[in-house]
């Protein structure tokens, strides 16, 4: 199907309304059939529609009425038409035959695979892969079958099959009305028989409003027998009390002027059943002047089922299927109405944007059924704590929005947020477990000139700010946040451009042996050569790249470029200058499902040999501890490719020594925060001594970062740190400058 979800539901709703209009306003059956074929083909996207009618004797034959999409090849269709129109389908045969047998819409069938399909060769030649059909009912009988074909294998949704059944009922009334109108020209007895066989109520009325004709369908629909109503007025029997005066005035106007706007029109009116209940009625009226007196006739049918179907479709289009809450479309509409009513007044409107914290963990730990139950419970709790005038909506996933009219101040909005957090705090009981749910809430108050999208967007921005404060926080929106978001969006767009235009480059910082000062490896560091702002450090763009996911393609480029340069430096091995090279992996990259395959591909494409130049990946403690099991698996796979693994910024995260024991790690890098004050106090020295001892006990290489003074280097050597990195030895530098440094080191090595 070309559309889905809310969009499909809205299309089906419009289709039902179009069919109702066509069934009542078309001039004759053929016109109605052509209009309905066209409507169904447009909504479903299927290019070919065809009508077959029931012929006495139990056969379905072609009416010659088709609808063909303009984009479907004419030659293919003509061959298919010639193969179809001479055929007669009996019960159970072909595509329309089973519909005649079962009386129900037929699911999609594969016309190429079904050996019993009579037009198999023709459909294959025409490129028509699948078809479906549904019956047209007149009373309890099937009078026609509509069949449709498309070029791609497809399955129909249950919603569309239900809609097609309703379409068949609507179209059946056109056949009934045609038969009934023809019956008026026949004898009274035959007219009575035909009228009584109709599925629609047929009502006759004289100029006084007294009922003169009443068929069996009218008895069923209104609950009155023919004997009971003949001679009674329409107003007294089937018109609800509140509409009787209008009915009488309309009849009087017609008798005076000979004109009435309602005549010949399809009308939807409330009607009264004998038991006193009201129900929706669709009615078509016309008049007839005989012997200087007027008579009036009407066909009417109960449209309760159609109205219920329309209401169900409309509800589905505007409400979340899981929780029953209004969806994005409905909450935007209600919020815009609130804003329109607010114009010119000082009434406050607050919008609260709610996002559950770490909801993914519930799905991952307990399964999606449990996650759905949590969302349902959260929706119930939100509704319970809010006023009837507030709108609680679910946007998507674990995001909810609440619209609160008549909120006087920010203080009142904060009180609402606090009440919501308190309501969500108690545990949610699942089948065998209970879970606690925390939420982040963004609050925005309506400002002059704001529309619904702006207000919800501002609350969304505030919600993200609330998340930075931890669990169960709320945050008010201010314009500074908007500026930050605009800046982030601008940087995101520029990052896309930077990838496309090759604006990224690599700098390298040497790492030296503590004992000799010789360069043993280099760390690749990303820089952005911005066309306007100049050279930017990672701190200015990496957080946004991580947040938006752009860090993944950027990180892939870093690995590719580092491998290419490392391959160029492989000659250093031949000069007996050992060299390793490492790149940083971000938390998002570490969770990248195809990271190992990507690295394997890059190594293969670059013909990279890790045995000639040691290639390493550096990951922070925090990144590893986000998902220790998955991280350990990924790092082990990278190690099996020949890569070295280093834990960066060690001592600053929330590592677990129990996990560290099982990680495939080669190197620990002591964070610069412990090196800066190492010459001024014993605390930092004690930490470095402990980390170094731990590393050596685990047979790991220990690197100290941020070495800037000779005194720091001396102490670190004394504490038996293996490798040193920092400005004392070299600043991060472009590849060309690093190559010169390395070549100079080679010359020194050779002369020695």
Description:
46% of the residues lie in helices and 23% in strands. The chain has 752 residues and is an alpha+beta fold. The strands form 5 sheets. Strands 19-20-22-23-24-25-26-27 form an 8-stranded mixed beta barrel, surrounded by 4 helices. Strands 3-2-1-6-5-4 form a 6-stranded antiparallel β-sheet. Strands 8-7-11-10-9 form a 5-stranded antiparallel β-sheet. The model has no long low-confidence stretch (mean pLDDT 86).
How many strands? Answer: 28
Cα radius of gyration in angstroms: 39 Å
Category by helix and strand content: alpha+beta
Strand proportion: 15-25%
Strand order of the largest sheet: 19-20-22-23-24-25-26-27
Largest sheet: 8 strands, mixed, barrel
Percent helix, as a range, is 40-55%
Low-pLDDT windows of residues: none
* General form: elongated
Q: CA-to-CA gap between the ends? A: 76 Å
Number of helices: 30
Whole-number mean pLDDT: 86
């Amino acid at each position: 199907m070309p559309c889905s979800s809310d969009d499909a539901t809205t299309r089906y709703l419009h289709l039902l309304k179009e069919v109702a209009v066509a069934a009542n306003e078309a001039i004759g059956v053929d016109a109605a059939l052509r209009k309905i074929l066209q409507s169904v083909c447009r909504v479903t996207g299927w290019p070919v529609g065809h009508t077959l009618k029931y012929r006495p004797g139990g056969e379905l034959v072609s009416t010659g009425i088709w609808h063909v999409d303009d984009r479907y090849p004419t030659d293919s269709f003509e061959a298919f038409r010639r193969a179809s129109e001479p055929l007669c389908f009996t019960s159970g045969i072909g595509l329309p035959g089973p519909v005649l047998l079962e009386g129900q819409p037929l699911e999609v069938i594969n016309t190429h695979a079904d050996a019993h399909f009579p037009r198999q060769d023709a459909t294959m030649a025409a490129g028509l892969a699948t078809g479906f059909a549904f019956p047209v009912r007149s009373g309890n009988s099937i009078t026609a079958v509509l069949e449709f074909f498309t070029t791609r294998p497809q399955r129909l949704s249950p919603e569309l099959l239900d809609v097609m059944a309703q379409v068949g009922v609507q179209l059946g009334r056109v056949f009934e009305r045609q038969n009934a109108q023809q019956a008026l020209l026949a004898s009274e007895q035959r007219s009575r028989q035909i009228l009584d066989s109709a599925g629609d109520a047929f009502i006759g009325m004289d100029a006084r409003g007294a009922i003169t004709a009443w068929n069996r369908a009218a008895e069923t629909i209104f609950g009155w027998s023919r004997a009971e109503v003949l001679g009674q007025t329409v107003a007294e029997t089937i018109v609800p009390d509140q509409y009787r005066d209008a009915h009488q005035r309309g009849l009087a106007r017609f008798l005076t002027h000979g004109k009435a706007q309602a005549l010949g029109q399809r009308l939807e009116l409330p009607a009264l059943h004998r038991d006193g209940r009201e129900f929706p009625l669709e009615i078509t009226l016309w008049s007839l002047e005989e012997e200087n007196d007027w008579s009036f006739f009407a066909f009417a049918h109960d449209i309760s089922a159609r109205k219920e179907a329309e209401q169900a479709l409309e509800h589905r289009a505007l409400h979340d299927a899981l929780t029953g809450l209004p969806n994005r479309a409905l909450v935007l509409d209600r919020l815009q109405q609130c804003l329109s009513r607010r114009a010119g007044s000082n009434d406050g409107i607050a919008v609260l944007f709610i996002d559950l914290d770490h909801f993914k963990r519930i799905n991952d730990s307990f399964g999606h059924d449990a996650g759905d139950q949590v969302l349902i419970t959260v929706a119930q709790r939100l509704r319970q704590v809010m006023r009837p005038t507030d709108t609680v909506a679910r946007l998507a996933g674990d995001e909810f929005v609440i619209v609160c009219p008549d909120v006087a101040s920010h203080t009142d909005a904060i009180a609402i947020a606090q009440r919501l957090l308190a309501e969500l705090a108690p545990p949610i009981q699942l089948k065998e477990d209970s879970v606690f749910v925390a939420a982040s809430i963004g609050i925005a108050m309506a400002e002059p000139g704001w529309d619904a999208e702006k207000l919800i967007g501002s609350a969304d921005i505030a919600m993200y700010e609330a998340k930075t404060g931890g669990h169960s926080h709320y945050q008010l929106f201010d314009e500074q946040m908007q500026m930050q978001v605009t800046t982030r969006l601008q940087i995101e767009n520029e990052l896309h451009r930077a990838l496309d235009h090759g604006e990224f480059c690599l700098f390298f910082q040497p790492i030296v042996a503590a004992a000799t000062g010789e360069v043993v490896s280099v760390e690749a560091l990303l820089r952005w050569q911005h066309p306007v702002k100049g050279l930017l450090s990672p701190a200015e763009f990496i957080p946004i790249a991580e947040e938006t996911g752009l860090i993944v393609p950027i990180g892939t480029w870093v690995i590719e470029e580092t491998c290419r340069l490392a391959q160029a430096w492989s000659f250093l091995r031949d000069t007996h200058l050992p060299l390793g090279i490492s790149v940083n992996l971000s938390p998002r990259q570490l969770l990248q499902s195809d990271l190992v395959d990507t690295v394997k591909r890059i190594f293969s494409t670059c013909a990279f040999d890790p045995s000639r130049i040691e290639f390493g990946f550096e990951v922070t403690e925090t990144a590893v501890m986000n998902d220790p099991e998955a991280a350990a698996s990924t790092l082990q796979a990278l190690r099996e490719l020949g890569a070295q693994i280093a834990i960066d910024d060690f001592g600053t995260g929330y590592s677990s020594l129990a996990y560290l024991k099982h990680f495939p790690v080669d190197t620990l890098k002591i964070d610069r925060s412990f090196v800066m004050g190492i010459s001024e106090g014993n605390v930092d020295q004690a930490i470095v001594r402990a980390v170094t001892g731990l590393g050596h006990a685990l047979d790991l290489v220990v690197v100290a970062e941020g070495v800037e003074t000779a005194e720091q280097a001396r102490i670190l050597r004394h504490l038996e740190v293996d490798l040193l990195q920092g400005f004392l030895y070299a600043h991060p530098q472009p590849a060309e400058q690093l190559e010169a440094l390395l070549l100079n080191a080679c010359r020194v090595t050779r002369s020695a």
